[in-house]
Amino acid sequence: MISIKLSSQVNYNVPSHEWKNSTQPWIDLFLINGNGESRVETSNTGVAYADFNEDGYLDILTLAQAPDGEYPLHQMLINNGDGTYSPDNTLITNPGFQAHGPRKTVVGDFNGDNKPDVVRIGGGHDVLEKSNILMSGTDNYTFTEIDVVPETQYHGFASGDLDNDGDLDLFFGQPESGFAMNDGSGNFTWYGVGEKISNYFAENTEQDGPYGVGTVEILDVNQDGNVDIVVGGAYADADYDYMLMGPTILWGDGTSNYDYNNKTEIWGFGEKPTVDGRAVDNNDDISFGDFDNDGYLDVVLTYIIQIDNDPNNGGNTTMSSVLQIFKGEINNEFNDVTNQWTSNPLLVLGFPVTWVLVRDVDNNGMIDIVESEKVQSRPGGSWGNSIRWEWNGSSLTITEIDTDSDGVLDFEDTCPETLEGETVDSIGCSTAQLSIEDKILDNSLKIFPNPTDNILFIRGNKNLMNVSVYNMLGKEVLSKINTNNIDVKVLPKGVYIIKISDDVGQINRKFIKN
Predict the structure, then answer these.
(1) Which of 12, 89, 90, 131 is the most buried (most CB within 10 A)?
(2) 276: left (phi over 0), alpha (psi -120 to 50) or beta
């Protein structure tokens, strides 16, 4: 791993949407959590990135995976400045603080001391709980419950300066939706949505506002100097449902008071996307960024599709995600450009994603669509690269994630930032060259024809080889053992990585399927 020292003091007094899409590092969290030896699962809904010890490097606050109903362990990983991290909870006064795994975590300065604080929403699946904050002190941090926030199981919340008084406030989605307004010292006052949002489903006496608000973001969408509240989640299937009609922006005026009649729906009732005739389920994430640099923020909507008792999956639950892209226009309007920018009416993934970021991850001036970390766990206990589409000036194209450009995609690279070959020993990754045998294998093998329509042949090795083919998202799509060729005619047109191995070593090569 490469640790980059922050060029100046970090500003933690920014909306949570800005922090995650602009500042937090884009890294292989799970390899760090496994101390560089192997990837170890952790909760990326409970992780926080911040410079907790104020040495100029971003540290990590993690939360171990735990079964529903059990308390996971808090763990602070201190950045050593050399690409390694050391588990060290000495900055936390009460590391045994008990809280269930949250569905979302935000970083910000809530008490005005220019240090990071961490808020996690309360409640896991079917667990009612208070939300909590890790608050900075003079030289330490302490977990406490936020007493004024209702005890419930929130799905979404966000932070931002709702009343323009210079400090970060909080807005919580359903159930028991409302505002935690900050006095600047980390003391909060609670207001239900009926007290601060006019005309907001006032006739629904069973809920505080519409049912199913599980996704919340706070940012200045129209860039007028006042932050707006973006709400989404489950949407109405009938116009009489007490639910949002579609992803909704409540326009702010800097007072922290909003009016449901002063809103923009990114799409409206009856426009819920469908895949193979089936409507998507919840809208799990909403992320903004200006792809085409026209001064208007565009938006990526991430939906989940959940099929229970799926006969095509042995009667198990199958989950996958779908992405839809809207271009921001004048007069706070949004137009669906998914097909125009990607040549697909929707971006349908074969697996679920948790968070989608819209940011320039490689600092080349072009915005990317990625997940919150470079490598992600996938169904079945496997690992895969983050999704990645990169803006090329007129459209979005799939881009591989090979940090060290060694031909091995990050998700299966034990040393993803070692540029000159890789070995792993007791001290971790090194830049030692590949072995003689690996060099021979690499130099002698040829794949042809490339591009190909069907059969891809492998020549130059005396042994039969094992072959796996991966798409640019890191998903294995074909495999064959003890062979010197592989038929790829069933694959869609595109660029693929072929992994070739035998008893001597392995190499990865790129090929094009016509």
Answers:
(1) 131
(2) left
